[in-house]
Amino acid sequence: MARLDPGRDTDVRTLRIAAAGAAAALALSACSSDATGEEPTTGDGGTDTAEITLWLNGTDTPDELRDYLVETFEAEHPGSTLTIEEQDWSGLVPRLQTALTSPDQTPDVVEVGNTQSPTFTYAGAFADITDMYDELGGDDLLPGFVEAGSADGALYAAPYYSGARAVFYNKDMFQAAGVEVPTTLEEFTEVATTLQANPPAGVENFSGFWLPGQDWYNGAAWIYAHGGELATKDGDAWQGALSSPESLAGLEQVQTLFQSATNAPVDADSNEPWVPFNNGEAAMFSAPTWARWSIDLPQCNAGVDPDDTSDEAKELLAQQQACNEEHTGIFPLPGVDGGVAPVFAGGSNIAVAAMSQHPELARDLLRIIFGEEYQTMLASKGLIPGNTEYASAMGDDVYSQAAIAAALDAKLTPPAELWADVEGQRILEDFFQEIAGGADPKDAAARADQLITDTLS
Amino acid sequence: MTAPAPAVRVGGRPPGAAAPPRRRRRHLGVYLLLVPALVPIAVGLGYPLVRQLVLSFQEYGLRQQFGQPARWVGLANYAELLGDPYVWAVIGRSVAFCLVNAAVTMVLGVALAVLMARVGAAARMALQVSMLLAWGTPVLASLTVWQWLFDSQYGVVNWLLADVLGATDMRFHSWIVEPLSFYFVATVIVVWMSVPFVVFSVYAGLLQVPTETMEAAQLDGASARQRFWGITVPMIRPVLSVVLLLQIIWDLKVFTQIYVLQRAGAPTRDTNLLGTLIYSYAREFSMAGALATVVLVVTLALTGFYVRRMLKEDEL
Fold first, then answer.
1. Which ranges in chain B belong to alpha helices (H)?
2. CA distances, A395 to each of A254, A380, A391, A399, A400 (Å)
3. CA distance to A28, A151, A335, B109, per residue, from A35 (Å)
4. Nearest chain B residue (CA) to A215
């Protein structure tokens, strides 16, 4: 309640009434569910026991990690319980919009997509955790994600994990076309074009590099690599920046790829790019590095029934994975002058709900999440942990190396309050689709900039 | 406390003077009987409508939902919406889409209903079952199937056109990337989903047309066409008007089909209809409320004439 203006008494009053009602309801539910004989206690301060709820999205956080959180939290807070509820990524924003506003329904700690963070931080949905910054990892926290989770100089949502994009390639096709892993963006275009011009026998509609028309998640890397931005802040106002000379240089290169290095449909997005790769219809695709688990080349497929859990089946699956990874290479997208291009980072932030009735317990849960043990567990599961100090636990195989290399330079969408509206209106999907369809980048960029500026203001 | 009072007074009056208060009491009873119906309507329909209207005159976004006070802005939301040529373009598109879809649905629906009334029992059963299946399939499930059918790379439609019918340039044709062909696909899907309702309603209406009248007309030498337009259509007119009215309302606020097709890869801005445009204001509740009110006005403008005529026919 401290974050509200003291002058706005009507709202404070209604909130207080709502909060009192919620506290009463919680007290009642605590009493009624008290079959185990524990003393129900309520009230503020750090010593209360309660049931707190954590929302995690999708299956990105493995069960092993969830169990660790529940066990550790409950061991450190005897009498309190932690419930983890899994939310679906799709439709998450509307669900958060309603749940976070209700003191008696709000989860206490929530995971939120990195590009969705600014929408909620500016709205006042999360509690201010600026004082925990150093405790959670300080300057070792993924910088782009800290920016996405901050508003007006205060930290509201800390980086949970990140997954950077890297380029997967079919080694056999590279060999057949006589090309090597590119070291600059210019070379990347050449390699992709050469691959496209030499399709494997019998494959029609072959793509050197799988780049669907609406795939701005990948396309944005070309803008970033040339020093461009999607939007920039001028004073207090955000403006579309797609028609800056730097952005246009990247967009022209993207258009060349669309025209001569891909046959991916203009009406597809970044979903499941491994499908054409597995079908032998694409030599390269770019995706978060956890896509390695989705690669399934026909020559390696051992035909294991997915429901078969016998040791034999596991053995076969391990062989299949090894075979897939033997035929598939990975490299971080190269920069303009070599090195690594800043790609678009996927991942999420984690925050304490402003309406949480147990902020102290919620903050304790954050402390567990940002502890060395949990961060190391995240890394060992192939996710880049919020605290980069522990990223080395990801291992030293090529996938992890590519992931770490790409993640260190990865960039996020502009941290503008209304950025989610740009995504809601699908302005960038439409824009990249126009570029893919052969529109003049300059004209299309000017139109898209206008839409972005209007939306962000 | 007030209700028993008149009863006491009535008891004390001479019998002749009792009539007016008793009538008033009976009226009161009538209104009381209305309460169970009025409360759900007020809660379920009235409250959202009032809230939508109130929102449309405020500045109300996420911040306000998290407790900040909402500012009254008068007609500013409406002015911004109606001053935007894009919104007018979307309104125009939606009205055109709605009229075309409602017309195609009605023509196909009535034709199939007449067919259903004419064919034998086995064929009728087959028709009814397939109609029910089309109608009963969950919207998202059938939309996924439609989406796969029209998929540019692996879709059956393109395969049929290119590999079976020989139109090889259609092999990787994208159906939804151009607005006109997008609306064609959307129309196919919307009509496919709406026709069963029209068929069943009109078929039920056709069963009510007395066979004696038809036989008499036949004996008098009226052709099938004359019987259909001169007897059947006027007799089932009430059914036709209700069904057409519902089609217009449904097709104007079509959302799911358009939304799913857009997500399948269509250019969003060029294919927005009113439903999806409102949805894109998901974080600006005041704008969404204002646009929803505009849609209400457009719906009333399109259907007001019909509603008035239907009410008049009811009175006769």
1. 4-12, 19-41, 47-56, 62-65, 76-82, 85-118, 121-136, 139-149, 156-159, 179-207, 211-219, 224-227, 233-235, 237-252, 256-263, 268-271, 274-280, 285-315
2. 33, 7, 9, 9, 6
3. 13, 43, 61, 60
4. B265
Q: Is ipTM strictly over 0.95?
A: no
- Please identify every stretch of chain B with a pLDDT value under 70, giving residue numbers as ranges: 1-26, 314-316
Nearest CB among B67, B176, B283 relative to A421 is that of B283
- Tell me what pLDDT residue A61 has: 86
Count contacts between A and B (CB, < 8 Å): 93
Question: Which residues of chain A register pLDDT less than 70?
Answer: 1-48
Of A124, A269, A418, the CB nearest to B66: A124
Residue among A421, A433, A451 minimizing CB distance to B267:
A433
What is the residue extent of each domain of chain A?
A: 13-163+345-408, 165-344+423-456
Per-residue pLDDT of A66-95, as tens digits, reads 999 999 999 999 999 999 999 988 778 888
Q: For residue A430, which residues of chain B lie inside 8 Å, CB to CB? A: 267-270
Chain A environment of B280 (Cβ under 8 Å): 421, 424-425
Q: How many CA atoms, within 13 angstroms, populate the side-chain half-sphere of residue A337?
A: 1
Nearest CA in chain A to B66: A101
CA distance A397 to B29: 82
Q: For residue B282, give the nearest of A265, A266, A424 by CB distance.
A: A424
CATH of domain B81-315: 1.10.3720.10
Rounded (10°) angle between helices B85-118 and B237-252: 140
Reported pTM: 0.79
CA atoms within 13 A on the CB side of B155: 24
Q: Is A431 exposed, middle or buried (0-12, 13-18, 19+ CB in 10 A)?
A: buried
Give B 118-157 residues with CB within 8 A of chain A.
Answer: 152-153
In this prediction, residue A241 carries a pLDDT of: 95
Are B174 and A93 an interchain contact pair (Cβ–Cβ within 8 Å)? no
Pairing mode of beta strands B58-59, B71-72: antiparallel
- Could you read off the pLDDT of A120-130 as tens digits, one per residue? 998 899 999 99
Chain B residue closest in CA terms to A15 = B67
B137 vs chain A: nearest CA distance in angstroms?
22
Residue B80: its chain A contacts at CB < 8 A? none
Please say whether the structural domain A13-163+345-408 has been given the CATH code 3.40.190.10.
yes
Please give, rounded to a whole number of angstroms, the shortest distance from the CA of A356 to a CA of chain B.
13
Please name the fold of domain A165-344+423-456: D-Maltodextrin-Binding Protein; domain 2 (3.40.190)
Q: Any chain A CB within 8 A of the CB of B261?
A: no
